[in-house]
Amino acid sequence: MTASITKDGLDALRAELSLSEIMRLIERTARWVDPETFRLLPVWYPEYRRRGLFYKSDWSEPQLNRNRETGVTIHKFEGNRYANRALTHALGLRSDDRPNWSCCHIWGVDDVTYASTNLVVQDARYYSCVANMVLLPTPLKAFTDVMPAVKAMLRACAFHTYAWRCEHDAVSSIEVLAAGHDNAYPTSWPNDHRGGLPLGTMELTPAIRRDASRRLDRIRRDLLEAGEYYPREQVRAVAEYWKIAI
């Protein structure tokens, strides 16, 4: 028998694994920030955003990368480092504690071709917002990138968990689907008719409180003392939006 290939790889996957089975894997393995942690400090790194430029020496000089082959020097920019760091600390973890786990942004510009600019995570209000992220085993993150139904259910769960949805213009027209609109929606996740927290919610602990307090102290210090490139207006705008006292 000659082997053949399904035109769309997702169709081949769906023939072997149902959406309900995919969601069960996510339900049982996802790690969510406690809503109390979100209320304590909604955004952990207001000075950073996706593709924001990096500076060193306490924000006093550009951080550059030089290509060894071409000799071309470019200004280094943020990818996902500080979103990862925010989620890690808000969950009470450290980087060494989480090999093969990935930070997944819940609200963003959905584009399976990765051709569109993700304006949501380029906005400092949402980039390191801990209600806009969930920690998933790295292989499962691919489902959130290419399957809109999975992302829709994550958004529904986050909405009912944190009583919040992203207000960025790029996603403001997207409705938060009624949790349970699909039979695949996990039965342990909150919806319009039941409360509670999703499985894998990491309780706010004294250690997380200390980390949040230290982070807020550092933001206040940097506003006063960091170098000329520290984005003070951006940080103040984020703090005002989230009503963070700085």
Task: Explain the overall architecture.
This protein has 246 residues and is α+β, with helices and mostly antiparallel strands. The protein has a domain at 18-146 and 201-242. The protein contains 9 helices and 8 strands. The protein has helices at 9-14, 19-29, 35-40, 81-90, 124-127, 138-146, 148-162, 206-225, 232-242, and strands spanning 32-33, 55-56, 61-62, 64-66, 73-75, 101-105, 133-137, 201-202. The strands form 4 sheets. A two-stranded parallel sheet has the order 1-8. A hairpin with a 6-residue loop joins strand 4 and strand 5. The longest helix has 20 residues, at 206-225. The radius of gyration is 20 Å and the shape is globular. The termini are far apart. The mean pLDDT is 92.
Keywords:
single chain, 246 residues, alpha+beta, two-stranded parallel ribbon, 9 helices, 37% helix
Q: Compute the number of strand runs.
A: 8
pLDDT < 50 runs, ≥5 residues: none
Gyration radius over CA: 20 Å
Shape field: globular
Global mean pLDDT = 92
Q: Largest sheet, if any?
A: 2 strands, parallel
The percentage of residues in β strands lies in 5-15%
Spatial ordering of strands, largest sheet: 1-8
Helix content: 25-40%
- H/E series, N to C? HHEHEEEEHEHEHHEHH
> How far is the N terminus from the C terminus?
68 Å
How many individual helices? 9
Structural class call reads alpha+beta
